[in-house]
């Protein structure tokens, strides 16, 4: 049919569209006109979120999903907190953008607050737009400050999706881009105690995971190594639990060879581990903290690179060759100031520690019911269940970087979680447990009951 302006109208398409539910229409528009990250573009079935509150997401048909991964482990204060809305609206009514060469009250307040909660003498902050940019600038700053080029990082780590940050991580999502990796990044093995690369047990090992790093430093030449980059607490690679003294020994190596220690607290920061930063859990003071996510609880994009006074003062009379158009964006800073106050007013960090301990107790009980639970690693509200085919052999239900052909069981587990009303992060043989810090004991019980039901699928695939 031709409209009177000469345009053709597809009546079949119109009829098909009109028959869709509100949720289906939103999903279809997104599938037709947007691209999805880390995914093939066909065969996906996203949740169409209309609104969210606390630990729950709601779609356009009224279905409710328990968000057991805090979005991408960033919505730490929970969804829909209108205090942030009001702070953002007030800032936008005053000024929405200024160049990074100008200052605002929100920028100064946020910098002052970060200095107060950061360990040691980390008192100055460069604001970025997210975690990857914080890591990129940490790497550049380390090289500027030391005059050295090499960065040592772990294989099982994720530091962001820009070229430098992706190279620094060992996550296999970088492999399709392998030809364009950034030079002078050196990787080391992980302190993966459940699957120790050296075949040791944590109770009797000699911390080969640390002596391994020192050998790499010696091989690469200490005079060439600018920094060691470590997650404050392991995240998307499976919440690999550091030995209790691991980061302290890495800190000692850095001091011995005059190397900077960069802590990636993008995921582990802002109460996620039951402390402001995971560095506090491990009792160390890094030279820089790169962070994002929880700084605004995901309400607006913002990242931060917090550096020591020693590093900052070096640039008093030297140009700091770093910068971003949206650095210290006033609206994002205003959101962050309010979010940091919410952590304190609602005692969310204390709640993360209490709920984390409760989850550990309850998952220990689940391990008695489900043979497929091989290991559970957790710090505060950052944890994951590792599913195996056999506890004795530790054969994973899906191996690291498993192709689609090996993901059948885990895909069924993920689908069952969604069917039961949970939004959760499932990757390889990991089911992550990282709910918002405002979660209650009753909501934890609700979530663990759903997980227990879903992993019966993995139990059926268990090999005795």
From TrEMBL:
Cofactors: pyridoxal 5'-phosphate
Alphabetic keyword roster: Pyridoxal phosphate
Source organism, top-level taxon: Bacteria
PROSITE patterns for the chain: AA_TRANSFER_CLASS_3
Entry-linked PANTHER family: AMINOTRANSFERASE, AMINOTRANSFERASE CLASS-III
Entry similarity comment: Belongs to the class-III pyridoxal-phosphate-dependent aminotransferase family.
Name of the molecule in the record: Taurine---2-oxoglutarate transaminase
Native source species: Chitinophaga rupis
């Amino acid at each position: 049919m031709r409209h009177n302006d000469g345009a053709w109208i597809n009546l079949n398409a119109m009829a098909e569209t009109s028959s869709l539910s509100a949720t289906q229409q939103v999903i279809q528009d997104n599938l037709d006109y947007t691209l999805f990250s880390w995914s093939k573009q066909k065969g996906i079935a996203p949740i169409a979120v209309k609104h969210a509150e606390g630990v729950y997401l709601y779609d356009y048909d009224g279905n409710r999903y328990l968000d057991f991964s805090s979005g991408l482990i960033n919505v730490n204060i929970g969804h829909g907190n209108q205090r942030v809305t009001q702070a953002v609206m007030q800032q936008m009514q005053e000024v929405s953008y200024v160049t990074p060469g100008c200052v605002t009250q929100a920028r100064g307040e946020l910098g002052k607050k970060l200095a107060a909660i950061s360990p040691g003498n980390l008192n100055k902050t460069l604001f970025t737009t997210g975690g990857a940019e914080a890591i990129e600038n940490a790497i550049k700053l380390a090289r500027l400050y030391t005059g050295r080029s090499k960065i040592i990082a772990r294989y099982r780590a994720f530091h962001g999706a820009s070229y430098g940050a992706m190279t620094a991580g060992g996550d296999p999502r970088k492999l399709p881009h392998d030809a364009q990796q950034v030079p002078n990044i050196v990787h080391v093995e992980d302190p993966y105690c459940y699957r120790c690369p050296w075949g040791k047990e944590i109770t009797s090992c000699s911390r080969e995971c640390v002596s391994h790093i020192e050998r790499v430093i010696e091989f690469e030449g200490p005079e060439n190594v600018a920094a060691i980059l470590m997650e404050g607490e392991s995240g998307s690679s499976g919440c690999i639990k550091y030995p209790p003294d691991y980061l302290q020994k890495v800190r000692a190596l850095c001091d011995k060879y005059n190397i900077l220690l960069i802590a990636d607290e993008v995921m582990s920061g802002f109460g996620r581990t039951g402390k402001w930063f995971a560095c506090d859990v491990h009792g160390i003071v890094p030279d820089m903290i790169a962070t994002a996510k929880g700084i605004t609880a995901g309400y607006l994009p913002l990242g931060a690179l917090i550096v020591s006074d020693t590093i900052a003062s070096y640039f008093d009379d030297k140009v700091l060759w770093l910068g971003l158009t949206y650095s210290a964006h006033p609206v994002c800073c205003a959101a962050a100031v309010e979010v940091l106050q919410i952590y304190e007013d609602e005692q969310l960090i204390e709640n993360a520690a209490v709920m984390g301990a409760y989850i550990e107790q309850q998952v220990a009980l689940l391990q008695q019911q489900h043979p497929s639970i091989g290991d559970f690693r957790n710090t505060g509200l950052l944890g994951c269940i590792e599913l195996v085919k056999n506890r004795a052999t530790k054969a994973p239900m899906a191996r690291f970087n498993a192709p689609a052909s090996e993901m059948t069981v885990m895909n069924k587990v993920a689908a069952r979680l969604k069917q039961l009303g949970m939004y959760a992060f499932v990757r390889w043989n990991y089911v992550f447990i990282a709910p918002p810090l405002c979660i209650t004991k009753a909501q934890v019980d609700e979530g663990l009951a759903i997980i227990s039901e879903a992993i019966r699928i993995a139990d059926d695939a268990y090999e005795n």
